[in-house]
Amino acid sequence: MAVKDYIRQRFFPHIWCPGCGHGIVLNALLRAIDQLGMSKNEIVMVSGIGCSSRISGYVDFHTLHTLHGRALAFATGVKMSMPELNVIVPMGDGDALAIGGNHFIHAARRNIAMTAIIMNNRIYGMTGGQYSPLSGYGTRATTAPYLNIDHDFDIAEMAMAAGASFVARTTTYHVRQMADILKEAILHEGFSVVEILSQCPTYFGRKNKMGSAADMMEMFKKNTTPIGSEAKKENPDLIERGIFVQKDVPEYCSEYDKLIENAMKGQ
């Protein structure tokens, strides 16, 4: 099956702004799925509301386009009712970590098998460029014209602390690494979190004078480094990318099936 066979071509051209990184994420995701040889009927994609959530409309899988911040809650219901399916949940800043933050930490804690893809463009792009939980201290947004004083979350650290059994980070510049990490995440039997640094030249880039989309991607190249590199020791401000956690932990659906079996036996 070719990558184009996974796309609902009737919905193209897409609505993302020129230079947006989300199309790169879509491309890498479809290549990962194609390389895994997965059938479209094996996959359910669940999204909320936002720029990133538009991905569910462009893929020819079983899809749910749900409420803002509630994608993981809907995805949990899908996985619990049909655990044999591969559930993929693309989210943005707010969808995952503002209104959706409580769902995120509890999905990680339960270790239910699904892949949470968090596209971190550090801004609310669809609703006008407001600052998000990932914008960071000292940045500008339409709702922070005199600088944002909120500190941002570290998605990887939060996911690990909440109990996610697979945690990784990459960028839209490192597209081959992205596809490889997504393959690992989809195959992992547990809650997988993949943070992808994604450029938003329209709002975050323009407000913070970061230049074009290509300039922002060049920053991803210069400001990130593989986990545990010598460069990180020399420059602690570099952002690490790669797989932080990949461990075997009892998966929620499997444990729930055991619970039912024991209850049926009267134990």
UniProtKB/TrEMBL annotation:
UniProt entry keywords in alphabetical sequence: Oxidoreductase
Matches recorded under SUPFAM superfamilies: Thiamin diphosphate-binding fold (THDP-binding)
InterPro entries membership: 2-oxoacid:Fd_oxidoreductase, THDP-binding, TPP_enzyme_TPP-bd
Domain Thiamine pyrophosphate enzyme TPP-binding: 49-196
Superkingdom of origin organism: Bacteria
A biological process from GO: cellular respiration
Classification via Gene3D superfamilies: 3.40.50.970
MF terms in GO: oxidoreductase activity, acting on the aldehyde or oxo group of donors, iron-sulfur protein as acceptor; thiamine pyrophosphate binding
Protein name as annotated: 2-oxoacid:ferredoxin oxidoreductase subunit beta
